[in-house]
Structures are given as structure tokens and as C-alpha cells.
């Protein structure tokens, strides 16, 4: 198992960007937003459309989905916990790949947890959602 | 007076030095602060007071009465804080007045009119009463004690006083300037004796233009030049005052995005705009036939340029929406725009920190002290060439071999720019008469007159002393009473020197200017009264000034760590609700 790092930046309320490197285990999610399904009319190709070599009666026409990720932090100090908690209220959160390559994500508003590991050690967990859709064809 | 600006959005950066004092009665019912051993304050300074009495608390304007006493107001135009009871106080002196604040919180101005809703000005200097009244076609004809100022049919007067007749009336007919017919049904029992008659300014309003952009001496002026951002039409309240915020307009000049390839970097011009206002009053006027809207002369307040930053200060901040803690002044350094006590940066990964620079025309230098195990290994100097005022991003990528970077920003020694040639001077609209611009600017006027300010861009830093030499020819005709020339800084010619002109001749000399706050202009103004005056400015030159470098930000230290390793022990694991493991340390 490998700690898969995630480098995030977010706009703080002072008007500058904070950076943090999340090294704890994260989870990938696929969120299905909308599904289109249609029922085939099997009469035009009757009886083949209903016989032994028939394909389907109901079929999917499109699926709109996007990727999400549960982000977990390593041990944090109290100050780091307080600052990183503000990521939930930030209007700009991005995954940083390089100075010129970033991806804007949205922090799921219902996903925030803070763990008190001890009196001086904390950890946080939240979900980020990609703003783009996973590519897929329409039938 | 008409319209006067009584409050600008000015914040105060406080000294960290605590001063204890006591508030006592000054003998007239006002509170007065007594500082044992004396205080260094003068009129116009501000202090922040903490005590157990609410009336004494907060930011207060100083009116120094003695070396160890001063009285306090909420603002320059306010009234003295009344005395309630003796009180021990703790106070902090404001070392910097500034206009840097959050664009997501109110950026408030306050204007006051003495014409509406009460015509205080005319009521005070021209009290007018009704000598007699008669019927005129069923309406009331008033014979006044003295003439009204420019009465016309369809305009309004007001009966000021207590009684059923108090209120506004329209003039139907003007027979004489002191004899008018108003739209009040005649009744022989009317009693006008309790009332004063004044002109009433119907549909009175104050027009405010909001200008947003960057100053002409800003390096990135051409990217975001000052432009008219919006116009407000405001009606004063029952006290003749109107308080308004322009932050919603200015938000249009702030782009909330993370553009690391912005053409103006390291100045993040997306996150900053300057602003100022112009204002005038308007009301209905009549020529006897038709009512039109009159708009008065506009007052330009660009002598004060504020700065809106893409920030939102938390509730219960001492400075409300002002960025006082993030600005520097003297030994009081600016904080970095980060909430981390010790930010964490990763070797090989892009990182940046932001700070506010309030100077134009000055080079900055970032010093990075790179340490490992507590030992200074390397010092890197990064030149930030004249970034201009605003939010400055300092980008860097940590290198291996270090576990701590400590960073501070200083200005580089500055050789002050020289005053532009006279042919490049311009003028504002602050006076009654204009200059004729050119290689030898000329001012010629007669009667009681005040020139516009003749100005050129020139950076003057607060607390620094600048020397100027002048050569001016003056010709006076007629009686001379109070002719004078003023050379000063900023559009208001502040912190300058006034040169008395008792007779015609050539005036040369040297003056020193030590601005109390940063100024962006050097200028000349003339006051002539009551003679005819003719002024030719032959030269205005500055002596070379070298301003030593000084520190502007606090030193901030950043932990530098390597990217996480690939192994860990079971002690570092916690099981998650999804039956996965999260690693706590690596």
C-alpha cells in the first residue's frame, strides 16, 4: 500500500492561496448525476428482436458522471487543522500538478470530519468533486 | 458649503506599544485624556482606546490641548466625546492612516449637505421673516423681510419653524424678490410669526461617481487604468447626511481566480483595485416656465486613493474590514497573507506566498534564509523589480537539502525620481481659476481667487524628507492683502509650505516636505485676494534623495519536507468507515 499524495491549494479569506500536501489514504468515487434509459420497440424486427439472438429490451442512452475523492490528512497541528478546515468555505480549491497545470474541484459541503487523535494531534477528512464529467458516448 | 465629505474609508495601523492614561472631565463636560509624563500626539492623530466605558472605546480622533492632555472625537468632523466618569484606559497610537480594505465588506463614505433637508446655510446667514401677507387670487401673497435669493415661479420655499404652516410651498408668482405668491390658500387667521423663510431645494440629491483602477504612477496603470466604475444618486437623511458603501461596485474590478500566468505577476492585479470618488449636488431649478435639474460643480476626491483587496476579514476583527495588520509602517511590519503559523512546502512542488505592497516605483527584495537542522546553509536574494502597489505573490519551489525556509521582504535603497518637467504638469479642479499649462505654467486671476492645484506625479513616502527649489515670478496689481503660493504634496498640497507674496517680484527658495502619509503628487497652488495676480512658474526641482532600504514584512518560516515515503507501520493506520485504512504519518 502506498500513501498517494494529493497537493491542494485554496483561496483563504485574506486574499491569497494556501497550499497543503495530503499524504494519507484517499478513496476514489464515481458519482452518477443523471441516467438516460429507453425501451426498444421490438416489433419492427419481430421475431428476431425477441428470439434467441435478441440483444436487449431496455438500454442505457447516456450517463452523466463525475469523479470524486475522499481526501484524508496526515496528523495535523491545531493551527493546521484550523486553517485546513477553512477549505470547506473557500470558493476556489484546486489540485496542483504544477505552476501551469491545476484542476479546480468543489469541496462537498456535507463531507467534512475532524478527528482528534490526541490533545495535540488532529486529522481531517473531506470529499472533493471534479467539476468535469467522465467522458462517455450517447446512444 | 453645500456638500462636504465628512468621512472617508480610512483605517489605522496601531503601534504595538501600550500606553496607559486616564480620562477625566475637562471642566466643560467633555472627556479629556491625561497622559502622565506627556504624549507625542498632535491634532489629526488617531488612537485606539480600550476601557470599561463604551463611549470612550474604539478609534478616536485626537485634538491635542496640551503636552499631556488631549480631547477625543469619533472623527475629524465629529463632536467631542462627552465626559461620563473618570476612567483608566489603555490606548494604542495609530502609526499609519490608510485606505486598504476588504472588497467584500463595506467601503463607506459619508457626505453632508447643508442645503437639504434643512437649508441650514441660508437660514443661518440670511434669516428671512414675513412682514405681512394678503390674498392674491385666493392664494397667499407674502411680503418678506428681505429679498429671496433668485426667486422664480415654480420654485419652492420652506417655512421653517414649529406650527401647522411649517413645510414646503411652491412659488406661483414672483412680484418682487421680497414679494411672492405661494400655493397656500389665503386665511386671514394665519400666523407666520413663528417661521423663518428659506429657499427649498426640491428633488435634492447628491451624485457620486465611483472611479476604480490603478494610479498613473503604478507600473501596471495601463492594464487597469482608472475609469468611471459607477454612479450613485443619493438622498441625505433627516440630518443632511448620507452614508454609502461602494464595495459592491468595486467587486466588479476584482477577479477571483488563481491565474499563475497573469501578465502582471508577481503583482496579482486580479485581487486589487484602487478607488476614489467625485461628488456633486443636484436639485430642481426653475426659469419661471420650466423646471429642470441643476447639477453643481463636481468635487474631485482623488487626493485620497483607497485600495480594495479580494479579502473578507473575519467578524470581530479589530480593524473591521481594514487590512491594517497586513501593511507596514516603520518598525511595525506587515503580516503575510497566510493563516498558517508555519506553512508547509514540499521539495520540488510549486509554492507561493502573498503580501501587500503599498508602494509604487520601488524595487523590493525577498530574502530566503535556507536552513537545515537549525543551521543557515544558504541565503537567496530575489529581486522583485518595481511590482507596484497591490497583492504581491512570491513564487518558489523548495529545493532538497533544507528543512526550513525563512522569508522576509525589504525595499531596496531608492534614489528618488526627479520632478517631471513643467510642461508635463497638469491641473485638477480644486480652485476657482485655472492655470495655462506649458513649459512655464501661468496663472492669472483677479478678485478673491484660488488656483487649481498644478500637479505632477511624484512619489513621497511618509516620514521621508524631500527638498525642492522653486523659481516663480509674480506680478500683483491693486491692493495686496493675502496673496500666497503653496507648494505641497498630494492633490490637496498637503504637508507643504505656504509662501507669502507681499509684492511683485521673483521668488526663489528651498522648501522641505515631510509627508505624514504616502503621497503621489507634488504641486503648486496660488491664492490671490483681492488684487489681480499673475504667476509664472519658471522651475520646480527636487534635490536628490536616497531612501535607504527598509523591511516591510515580518519574517515567516516555512517547514520544508520531502515528498512522503512509500512505507509505514501499522501504528500509523486508522481504519476508515469504508473499511479502508488512512495513514496518519509517513
Strand count of chain B: 45
Task: Report the helical percentage of chain B.
Answer: under 10%
Total number of helices of chain A: 1
Beta fraction of chain A: over 45%
- Return Rg of chain A in Å: 22 Å
Approximate shape of chain B? globular
Total strands of chain A: the figure is 8
Q: Could you characterize what this model shows?
A:
The complex is a heterodimer of chains A (139) and B (586). By secondary structure, chain A is mainly beta. Chain A has one helix at 78-85, and strands at 6-11, 17-22, 27-39, 58-72, 93-98, 101-107, 113-116, 122-130. In chain A, strands 1, 2, 3, 4, 5, 6, 7 and 8 form an 8-stranded antiparallel sheet that branches. The mean pLDDT of chain A is 89. Chain B has 586 residues and is an all-beta fold. Chain B is built from 2 helices and 45 strands. In chain B, strands 9, 17, 18, 20, 21, 22 and 23 form a 7-stranded mixed sheet that branches. Chain B has a 6-stranded antiparallel barrel with strand order 3-4-7-6-5-8. In chain B, a hairpin with a 2-residue loop joins strand 14 and strand 15.
Characteristic terms for this protein:
heterodimer, A: 139 residues, mainly beta, 8-stranded antiparallel sheet, 8 strands, 47% strand, elongated, B: 586 residues, 7-stranded mixed sheet, 6-stranded antiparallel barrel, 2 helices, 45 strands, globular
Quick description:
Chain A is mainly β and 139 residues long.
Write the layout of secondary structure elements.
The complex is a heterodimer of chains A (about 140) and B (about 575).
Chain A: E1 6-11, E2 17-22, E3 27-39, E4 58-72, H1 78-85, E5 93-98, E6 101-107, E7 113-116, E8 122-130
Antiparallel strand pairs in A: 1-2, 1-5, 3-4, 4-8, 5-6, 6-8, 7-8
Chain B: E1 3-7, E2 11-14, E3 19-25, E4 31-34, E5 46-50, E6 58-66, E7 69-73, E8 87-98, E9 100-102, E10 108-113, H1 120-125, E11 130-136, E12 139-144, E13 156-160, E14 167-176, E15 179-185, E16 196-200, E17 205-213, E18 227-234, E19 241-245, H2 247-250, E20 272-286, E21 291-295, E22 299-300, E23 306-309, E24 344-346, E25 351-357, E26 364-372, E27 375-384, E28 390-396, E29 404-411, E30 414-415, E31 426-427, E32 435-436, E33 442-445, E34 449-450, E35 454-460, E36 466-477, E37 484-489, E38 494-500, E39 505-513, E40 519-528, E41 532-542, E42 546-547, E43 556-561, E44 573-575, E45 581-583
Amino acid at each position: 500500500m502506498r500513501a498517494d499524495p494529493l497537493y491542494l491549494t485554496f483561496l483563504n479569506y485574506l486574499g491569497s492561496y494556501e497550499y497543503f500536501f495530503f499524504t494519507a489514504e484517499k478513496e476514489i468515487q464515481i458519482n452518477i448525476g443523471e441516467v438516460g434509459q429507453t425501451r426498444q420497440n421490438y416489433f419492427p424486427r419481430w421475431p428476431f428482436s425477441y428470439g434467441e439472438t435478441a440483444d436487449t429490451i431496455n438500454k442505457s442512452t447516456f450517463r452523466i458522471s463525475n469523479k470524486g475523492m475522499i481526501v484524508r490528512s496526515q496528523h495535523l497541528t491545531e493551527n493546521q487543522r484550523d486553517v485546513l478546515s477553512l477549505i470547506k468555505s473557500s470558493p476556489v480549491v484546486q489540485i496542483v500538478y504544477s505552476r501551469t497545470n491545476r484542476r479546480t474541484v468543489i469541496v462537498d459541503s456535507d463531507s467534512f470530519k475532524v478527528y482528534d487523535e490526541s490533545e495535540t494531534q488532529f486529522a481531517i477528512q473531506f470529499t472533493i468533486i471534479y467539476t468535469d464529467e467522465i467522458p462517455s458516448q450517447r446512444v | 458649503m453645500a456638500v462636504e465629505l465628512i468621512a472617508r474609508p480610512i483605517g489605522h495601523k496601531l503601534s504595538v506599544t501600550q500606553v496607559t492614561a486616564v480620562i477625566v472631565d475637562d471642566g466643560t463636560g467633555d472627556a479629556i485624556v491625561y497622559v502622565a509624563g506627556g504624549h507625542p500626539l498632535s491634532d489629526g492623530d488617531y488612537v485606539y482606546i480600550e476601557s470599561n466605558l463604551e463611549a470612550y472605546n474604539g478609534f478616536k480622533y485626537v485634538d491635542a490641548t496640551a503636552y499631556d492632555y488631549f480631547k477625543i472625537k469619533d472623527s475629524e468632523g465629529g463632536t467631542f466625546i462627552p465626559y461620563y466618569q473618570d476612567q483608566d484606559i489603555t490606548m494604542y497610537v495609530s502609526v499609519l492612516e490608510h485606505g486598504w480594505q476588504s472588497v467584500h465588506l463595506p467601503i463607506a463614505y459619508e457626505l453632508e449637505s447643508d442645503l437639504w433637508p434643512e437649508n441650514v446655510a441660508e437660514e443661518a446667514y440670511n434669516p428671512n421673516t414675513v412682514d405681512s401677507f394678503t390674498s392674491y387670487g385666493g392664494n397667499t401673497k407674502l411680503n418678506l423681510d428681505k429679498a429671496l435669493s433668485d426667486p422664480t415661479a415654480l420654485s419652492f420655499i420652506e417655512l421653517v419653524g414649529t406650527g401647522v404652516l411649517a413645510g414646503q410651498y411652491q412659488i406661483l408668482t414672483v412680484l418682487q424678490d421680497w414679494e411672492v405668491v405661494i400655493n397656500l390658500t389665503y386665511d386671514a387667521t394665519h400666523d407666520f410669526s413663528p417661521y423663518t423663510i428659506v429657499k427649498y431645494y426640491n428633488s435634492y440629491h447628491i451624485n457620486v461617481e465611483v472611479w476604480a483602477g490603478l494610479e498613473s504612477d503604478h507600473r501596471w496603470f495601463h492594464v487597469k487604468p482608472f475609469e468611471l466604475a459607477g454612479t450613485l444618486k443619493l438622498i441625505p437623511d433627516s440630518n443632511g447626511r448620507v452614508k454609502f458603501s461602494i464595495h459592491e461596485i468595486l467587486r466588479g474590478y476584482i477577479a477571483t481566480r488563481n491565474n499563475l500566468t497573469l501578465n502582471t505577476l508577481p503583482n496579482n492585479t486580479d485581487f486589487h483595485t484602487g478607488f476614489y470618488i467625485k461628488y456633486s449636488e443636484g436639485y430642481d431649478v426653475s426659469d419661471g416656465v420650466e423646471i429642470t435639474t441643476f447639477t453643481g460643480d463636481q468635487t474631485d476626491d482623488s487626493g485620497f486613493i483607497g485600495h480594495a483587496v479580494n479579502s473578507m476579514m473575519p467578524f470581530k476583527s479589530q480593524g473591521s474590514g481594514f487590512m491594517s495588520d497586513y501593511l507596514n509602517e516603520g518598525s511595525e511590519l506587515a503580516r503575510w497573507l497566510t493563516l498558517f503559523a508555519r506553512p508547509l512546502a514540499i521539495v520540488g512542488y510549486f509554492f507561493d506566498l502573498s503580501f501587500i505592497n503599498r508602494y509604487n516605483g520601488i524595487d523590493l527584495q525577498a530574502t530566503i534564509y535556507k536552513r537545515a537542522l537549525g543551521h543557515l546553509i544558504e541565503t537567496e536574494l530575489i529581486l522583485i523589480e518595481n511590482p507596484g502597489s497591490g497583492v504581491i505573490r512570491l513564487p518558489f519551489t523548495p529545493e532538497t537539502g533544507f528543512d526550513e525556509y525563512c522569508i522576509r521582504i525589504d525595499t531596496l535603497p531608492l534614489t528618488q525620481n526627479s520632478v517631471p518637467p513643467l510642461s508635463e504638469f497638469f491641473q485638477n479642479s480644486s480652485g476657482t481659476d485655472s492655470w495655462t499649462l506649458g513649459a512655464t505654467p501661468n496663472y492669472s486671476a483677479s478678485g478673491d481667487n484660488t488656483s487649481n492645484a498644478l500637479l505632477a506625479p511624484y512619489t513621497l513616502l511618509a516620514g521621508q524628507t524631500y527638498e525642492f527649489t522653486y523659481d516663480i515670478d509674480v506680478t500683483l496689481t491693486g491692493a495686496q492683502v493675502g496673496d500666497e503660493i503653496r507648494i505641497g504634496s498630494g492633490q490637496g498640497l498637503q504637508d507643504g509650505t505656504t509662501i507669502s507674496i507681499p509684492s511683485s517680484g521673483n521668488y526663489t527658495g528651498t522648501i522641505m516636505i515631510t509627508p505624514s502619509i504616502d503621497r503621489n503628487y507634488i504641486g503648486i497652488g496660488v491664492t490671490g485676494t483681492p488684487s489681480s495676480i499673475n504667476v509664472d512658474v519658471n522651475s520646480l526641482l527636487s534635490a536628490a534623495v536616497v531612501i535607504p532600504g527598509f523591511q516591510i514584512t515580518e519574517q515567516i518560516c516555512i517547514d520544508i519536507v520531502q515528498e512522503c515515503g512509500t512505507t509505514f507501520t501499522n501504528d500509523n493506520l486508522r481504519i476508515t468507515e469504508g473499511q479502508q485504512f488512512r495513514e496518519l504519518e509517513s
